[in-house]
Batch of 2 targets.
Target 1
Amino acid sequence: MTAISVTGLSKRYGATLAVDGIDFTVAPGETLGLLGGNGAGKTTTIAMLLGLLIPTSGRISILGHDMATDRFAALARMNFSSPYVALPGRLSVAENLRVYGHLYGVRRIDARIAELAGQLDLEALLHRSAGELSAGQKTRVALAKSLINRPDVLLLDEPTASLDPDTGDLVRSWLERYRAESGCTILLASHNMAEVERLCSQVLMLKKGRVVDRGAPQNLLERYGRDDLEQVFLDIARDRQHPEATA
Amino acid sequence: MIEQNAAMASAQRIWGLMYRHLALFRRSWPRLLELAYWPVLQMCIWGFTASFLATRNGSPAALAGGALLGGVLLWEVSLRSQMGMSITFLEEIWSRNLGHVFVSPLRPFELVAALIGMSAIRMLAGVIPAALLAWALYAFNLFALGPVLVLFFVNLMVMGWAVALAVVSLILRHGAGAEALAWSVLFGLTPFAAVFYPVSVLPVWLQPVAFAVPASHVFEGMRAALLDGTIAWDQLGWAAVLNVAWLVGAAVLFAAQFQVARKNGALLSIGE
């Protein structure tokens, strides 16, 4: 069984085709990187996976639940984090986590908050307003929110954007450890190629709403004859000739 | 057992969203003060006006003054219910939190239930101080209307929720650009709600409009109770029937606009 299965997924806004018939699957416990420039269709794809957006055509199944007909059963076992969606700034960190604990049906919420606070070094922040925190602290709180229900599928939209290298590295290390311990399936959209190389076992390259390449990071590097994913990304984004094709 | 667990889970999600808004009040006394500010101010203005009329014109004016104060207090029930629900929804937009709420397992009907719960709390926090002020300053005891007052309250609250649900639907459709409706829409209905005068005062061609507004029947009933000491069951019946129609209409509009918002991507950009 696959954790995420996407078949013929398209989204059209008037004359604009934001996502154009993409297909992919993610196996349980795998981390899939979604790469692409601005306007490639990453956010639209994530929004459809989360049920925020109804596809024009195609089918999404998450954890065996069809997102068109049974999305709430899947949503209870998923979670999401993005620096572009805020948590209520006037509530304390603990209150925020309590709200989402209730929304996701978590039992013994305060014990779960204490556990996450210990793991993500949030103890000193629990009673501070979320709006007063630094970018790095907010990211850790958002991550705690996204893990409050011990999700089986985690969607992360640029989880380390605007973080300093040290905090970014801590978050990445923590995600690696969490995935290894929990077996959680992760879909990661990022512009940080080093992050994708480090965390993802599979990568999907999107451009103008279409999947233009896919594979394990190492396979992509070999196929394009490049040393890092950033160069592969630029090859694709700038329509450079495939190195093997020009050879 | 499964149904019971599902009901418990649903109640927990509704409470979760209500807790989010109650926590806001716990951390901000100006927000609490703001809830009672307008109802109390309205009561002061209309209370002194009614007292002045009573001293000049005697007993008939005192009776009319009582009806005026009753109207002010009960209309606040509708106003505060509608604003409470609409503003609670807007709080989610202002805090850019809707993205998280809509990707949680919270069902749309649970969102509406939480908004209704918060609306009731906000309404009571506004109307109770105003009612106490009316009793303390003007010796006007709203509760002297007896148990029928509960029916007046319920009908006016339900009308407020129906209007608020329509406002929330328009916000889903048009984004934050429609947020001014949260404050203004029910004031536009005031002339047809027969709050301060009977429907018969309106021009004949406008009376059908007034009779289509549930509140007009509640206020006709309130005047019957205050001035004649009778309970106008027919008026209460009409108010209830119209409220059911308004609520069903608003629920259909909300469901349709929610689907449209999921189709056109409005849930991704609703705060912009």
Target 2
Amino acid sequence: MSDPTTTPRSEYLLEARDLKKSYENGAIEALRGVSLGIVAGDFLAITGPSGSGKSTLLHLLGGLDLATEGTVLFRGQPVGKSQNGVAAIDIDTYRARWAGFIFQSFHLLPALNALENVQVPMLGTGSHRRDREERARALLVELGLEPRLRQYPNQLSAGERQRVAIARSLVNNPAVLLADEPTGNLDSVNSAKILELLAQIQERHGTTLIMVTHDLNIAATAHRHVAMRDGRICD
Amino acid sequence: MRLSFVGFAWRNVWRRRLRTALTLCGIGMGIGAFVALVGFSRSFEHAWLEMYENAGTDLAVVQKTFLNTSVDQSIAPVLQRIPQIAIAAPMIINMMAVTPEVNTLVYGWQANTFEFSALNILEGRRFRDGQQEVMLGELLAGSLNKKVGDTIDLQGGSFTVVGIFRSGSALEAGAIIMPLDQMQSLSGMSGKVTAFHVQLKPAPSGVSPDQWRQQAEDAVSSALPGLRAVPAAERAANNQLVILAHAAAWGTSLIALLVAALGIANTMAMSVFERTKEIGVLRAMGWSRRRVMTLILLEAAALGVAGGVVGVALGWGALHILGMLPQTASIVSSTLPLRTLLDGLIMAILVGVAAGSIPAWRGAQLSPVEALRHE
């Protein structure tokens, strides 16, 4: 496992520095000082029991939330909050341009079909319609969903929905892919397929992959893994 | 259908079809009331202007007081001596009941007034001064089923219909015209008139028509303190009947629009609440707060536009009905002015955006993580 204190900082694509996150005026401490460095192309699994803070860490690394204390650096630049006079990357821009999310419950928009769901991140950045469609179609074809392009989420199986969600997470060509229990709602056959797919994507696209899971067998498919307990990295 | 930002907004609106349809009905009623009432009052104003323009009236000489203007007829020679004035025709206008259900405008004119030039006599002849004779606009004659030779009762007096005329102004087409002296006696205005309608002489070379008219207005004010000469367009827009019609139309419409706005606000607030998780997904996908806010405002504006179209159709229908009813046909034209149509649509969009702004702001403030956790 890489150690941010011994690896030169310039090598990190993404770095967490002493992240703390508390809720309800400090009554609940979800993270109690987490530091972590992730190099480009890494496949990191974060494991831990419920309430250990693994999802909170993923949210902070992905710019879905801001830390109470500490900093997330992307390519050496703070995300969301400037630090020591170094200008921050706008957190919306970071999510739109550099981070892609895969959720346990897919979170596809029910009013849109598969092809349209994949275009949603590009719709947020005002990309040209033809570019959006071509990119979304290419990704869905790559993920084996060519016959299902016009199907709505309620017409897709759970495995297909997650593949659409994966295509959506890749559509803006992110540097980091963040997956929160991506197989949590799938049966074992579909779980294996999705994990294989993620590994292929990580290899083929060179995308850095950070996956939260409570399943150690799944974590074993990653290049490395960190375990969390009580808001801290414990190994 | 290809996905676009506007199309996405519309699909969100159309997902809850029943709620959207009910909201559209609410907006439609509000905008419909606006179009019908404001359209009615503008059409009323326009009919006044048409009446003056068709007759070639340049100025109206009235009292400076706002309500119930009444002018001594004896000032006619003073007006005729003003160098800019060609003709000064005394007239009375009043509203009278011709049947228990129908009230109509009644004009008192002198038989030789220039204002007859705007009328086309279809049957019969012009009335004679001093006789109990009237002429009916063709619209009124049709609705009362009267023809030349029939009699009509007004304020207890019996008048013979001596002519049926056509006019370009709805205010005349549905009206009665009678000799000024008869009207004075019916209205208890002996020696008094409502106004003098004035035609000016042509402006001499080197003087613009506006300057010439201004000189006439100044001359009237100085020759007859307490009276003023107002241009025909101003008289059309600022006479007390038109002002009251505008005020009533706008007041009632604004209340209806407020109700419509509350309907949109309620729909958008519900929609944002129900889609909290979806908004979280959009934010997670990198959509900025501004983008989310724009989406929700666009949805509200789409509701406004659709409601506006429904409302314009309803309002036009209402105007059409008002234009056919005997009680209102004499004072309203059933045509929908383009300005009122555009005002209705613009009002609908503004109401939509204003009503959607708070839900949009609240939606945009949602933290992605909290929104994604929302159940």
